[in-house]
Amino acid sequence: MSLWKKKLGLRWWLEYTSIIVGAAVCGAAIALLLEPNKIVPGGVTGLSMILKDLLGLPMGVVLVALNVPLVVFGWRFLGGVRLLVRTVVGLVVMAAAIDLVSAHAEVLSRDRLLVIFYGGMLSGVGLALVFRGRGTTGGADILGRLANLWLDVPVGQAILALNVLVFGVAAFYYGFEEAAVALMVSFVATRALDAVLHGLVATRAALVVTERPDDVKETVRRHLHRSVTLLPAEGGFSGRPKTILYVVVARAEVARLKRRVTEADPEAFMTIYSPAEVLGAGLGGAAG
Questions:
Q1: CB neighbours of residue 170 within 10 Å
Q2: Is the dihedral of CA 105, 111, 116, 118 positive or negative?
Q3: CB-CB contact of 93 with 20 (8 Å)
Q4: Considering only CA atoms, which of 239, 231, 243, 232 is closest in space to residue 267?
Q5: What CA–CA distance (Å, rounded) separates 52 from 194?
Q6: Domain-by-domain residue ranges, the chain?
Q7: Mean pLDDT across 262-274
Q8: How far apart are CA 149 and CA 129, in angstroms?
Q9: Coil, strand, or helix at residue 228?
Q10: Interval 121-154: pLDDT, tens
Q11: DSSP code at position 40
């Protein structure tokens, strides 16, 4: 077997392991924290929880039943066998985890704060692992993409509309307080998902607009040991030539960067922001 095939096989195993572990974590979070406290997740999973109470069926069964037509349409119109298989794996594992854990484990907590934090964190981490494995758990993701394909509705707006509907029904059926807690859980889950997918970025990027680029570049190199990327620019009002310096520094170095840039050019205009991700040893002004 060639090295390429070995790497491909290893990646395949890692991706499916990530999907299975992530879906199981999501299911466990729902079974141990969210469902017993009537805290509805967003999307089709939340709708499944409501229908579960109305119909008296296991939540995992309802979840699979609601997703079957979505998976079929997704396979038919959005992708081929790869999408179908990965979605089915994620969906079945999560549904099985919900029902099995619910049947054999006690509720972890009734405390609202603990449910919000741990329920949201575990849900977000689980979904991130599923996405890292290039899988889905069906539901809102497929529905949003189908709405975009058939109705020309942006995917984000379609998912938001579904979540508004689900949280509205939850507020009517379970009560306003439970729906409000569900929104907080959704916020925590989103933050946890982003942290796992993109990492907890400990860097900051700066754009410095200056007419003294050599002085600023030299002070950044000497005092912060960082390289910079120079971009030619022109003042919008003055029409004078300017230079934009792009540099990435550690979060703890931001104060030093501002001080040194101001010393080198008191008239410099600086914007500092947090990038979602930083890749490459020398990208955009890394050390060196």
A1: 26
A2: negative
A3: yes
A4: 243
A5: 30
A6: 3-198, 203-273
A7: 90
A8: 26
A9: coil
A10: 999 899 889 888 878 787 777 777 777 778 877 7
A11: P
Backbone angles phi, psi at 149, to 5 degrees: -70, -45
Report the alpha-carbon distance of residue 216 to residue 15 in Å, rounded: 45
Task: Give me the pLDDT at residue 4, please.
Answer: 55
Average pLDDT estimate for 200-209: 81
**What does the pLDDT read at residue 284?**
44
Contact 42, 115 (CB under 8 A): no
Please provide residue 24's backbone torsions phi and psi, each rounded to the nearest 5 degrees.
-65, -40
Q: How buried is 74 (Cβ within 10 angstroms: 0-12 exposed, 13-18 middle, 19+ buried)? A: buried
Q: What is the DSSP letter of 117?
A: I
| Identity at 256, one-letter amino acid code | R
pLDDT tens profile 67-99: 888 888 877 777 667 777 888 899 999 999 999
Instruction: With cut-offs at 50, 70 and 90, classify the pLDDT of residue 155.
Output: low
Q: Which burial class, exposed, middle or buried, applies to 182 when counting CB atoms under 10 A from its CB (0-12, 13-18, 19+)?
A: buried
Rg (CA), the chain: 24
Report yes or no: 89 and 21 within 8 Å, Cβ to Cβ: no
Give the SS3 label for residue 287. strand
Burial 48-71 (b: 16+ CB within 10 A, else e): bbbbbeeeeebbbebbbebbeebb
**CA distances (Å), origin 149, targets 5, 43, 68, 81, 138:** 35, 19, 19, 19, 16
* DSSP-derived pairing of the beta strands 269-273 and 229-234: unpaired
Counting beta carbons within 10 angstroms of the beta carbon of residue 272, is it exposed (0 to 12), middle (13 to 18) or buried (19 or more)? middle
Say which CATH class 203-273 falls into.
Answer: alpha beta
At 257, list the tokens: 């960067």
